[in-house]
Amino acid sequence: MKSKVLVITSGKGGVGKTTTTANLGTALAMLDKSVVMVDTDIGLRNLDVVLGLENRIVFDIVDVVNGSCKLRQALIKDKRIESLFLLPAAQTKDKNAVTPHQMKNLTNELRKEFDFILVDCPAGIEQGFRNAIAGADSAIVVATPEISSVRDADRIIGLLEAAGLYDTRLIVNRLRSRMVKNGDMLDVDDIIDILSINLLGVVPEDESIVISTNRGEPAVMETSSKAGAAYKKIARRLNGEEVPLFTLEDERILDKFRRLLKIAR
Amino acid sequence: MVNLALENVGSEILIALKRTKNFDELKTALVKKINMIDDFRLGNEVIIDIGDYQLTGKQTRDLEDLLLDYGFHLKEIICTGGMMDQENLTPADDTPDEAFAIMPEYENTVMLCRHLRSGQKVFVEGNIVILGDINPGAEVIAGGNILVMGSIKGMAHAGAFGDENALIAAYRLKPTQLRIASHITRPPDGEVIDIERPELARIKAGKVVIEKLKI
Predict the structure, then answer these.
(1) How many residue contacts between A and B have a Cβ separation below 8 Å?
(2) Which residues of B touch A215 (CB under 8 A)?
(3) Mutation test of the interface with chain A: which of B155, B157, B184, choosing the one with the most A Cβ atoms within 10 A?
(4) Over the stretch B104-128, which tens digit does the pLDDT of each residue have?
(5) In this predicted model, what pLDDT tens digit does every residue of A19-51 receive, in sequence order?
(6) What is the mean pLDDT of residues B91-99?
(7) Residues of B in contact with A43 (CB under 8 A)
(8) Domain count, chain A
């Protein structure tokens, strides 16, 4: 299988890029794929904390691109899953410590060893973003059903296209079905209308994410987590399986009902 | 004039050799002191206080060898002298090539009165004393010892140039990672140990051990 480099980005901060990276990485590794997650948020690293691997960091991405250590030395093996690895960001440097060219070389190096390379992109559209997308084959844009997040996602999709990344897919994160039903929240179709890109999956709002993040254990490891189940489905889709978009289907059925009701009136 | 103080500090022996004029005099004084030590203390570690005298790297090694001949281990050499005289600062017998060799180990101690937050990094060649916390994501690297009058929650690296005798002491020791010389340790997974007392980390028998800080 040809390895894939996916960048997970959003433009806006706090929409769940890091949580998405951690969960998709873990879920893909649970499907027996070899996966590496690359944290490019230099100076504000979080992915290691979310995965509970913070205390294992000795070398980081900056050490690798500077040649201070070998790539193998910087890769941290996950404590739960054999085929899952993390390349952590540096905390005491800044985004300029890495160049897009170096990132490209790095991802090409990682391609030799892994099926999936998930790049966790920092918020913003500056150097960090340019680094993160440099070596990517395609992008996953995470957006929450808020107008500000969708606006930023639109800007990001434009920038990705400008950089030659056209195969961009969308994850709608933190959707509250009740609020959507009441018409208080943007629904998935509205977001797709605005962004006009393919939908990869919908992740419901789930309080258990907060708990699992604080514990350093991805939600996909929890069988009871709703968000975890959604991430597992997305991972299977990334792996090339056909998995129906349940949440979206539900919404469509609901829409049909609404339309019928409107006609009846 | 040689001050012949000899003190016992726990299992260590502190030998004060203050106000010596030259290295030969210092050596003679040291031999005199060693002969005064009881035989049952053989094999103990010795700390030598050389007042305001400055040793070259070679002289330090000479003292170490001298102690080993008598069956003692040199733990460290400390300088508790007052203000140094100008002539003492430039030992006459050293060529400029040895500029680095004359720098006594951990001569300088840096004191820092603030919290170190995530992403902040402090490096000192000698010892460091921090009045504040080291938060997760912050790094303190010292060539010598690290003393934190607060919590270590981030990363601390003592003896960064390879000194395995370096210590890390903290009012509360809850690090993400501790490093001494080339040893790296981290707390075990899944265990939450809350110890509400000052602790000390050092290398014993090739492993980093954490023990209660006895004061």
Answers:
(1) 24
(2) none
(3) B155
(4) 456 789 999 999 999 999 999 999 9
(5) 999 999 999 999 999 999 999 999 999 999 999
(6) 41
(7) 119
(8) 1
Chain A residues touching B139 at Cβ < 8 A: 91-92
Residue B104 pLDDT: 41
Decide if B176 and A55 are in contact by the 8 Å CB cutoff: yes
What are A155's two structure tokens? 């800007």
Contact yes or no for A167/A138 (Cβ under 8 A)? yes
Q: Where are the beta strands (DSSP E) in chain B?
A: 6-9, 12-16, 45-49, 73-78, 109-112, 121-124, 127-130, 139-142, 146-152, 155-158, 168-173, 177-180, 183-185, 199-204, 207-212
Q: Which CATH number characterizes residue B75's domain?
A: 3.30.750
Residue A64's nearest CA partner among A99, A116, A5, A106 is: A106
Q: Given 3-state DSSP classes, what are the helix, strand and coil percentages for chain A, each rounded to the nearest 5?
A: 50, 15, 35
Asked if this assembly's ipTM is beyond 0.85, the reply is: no
Q: Is the pLDDT of residue B103 over 70?
A: no
**Which domain, by its residues, includes B39?**
6-98
Higher-pLDDT residue of B4 and B112 is B112
| Residues of chain B contacting A, Cβ within 8 Å | 118-121, 136-137, 139, 176-177, 184, 186-187, 189
Partner-chain contact A92 B139, CB within 8 Å? yes
Are B45 and B129 in the same domain? no
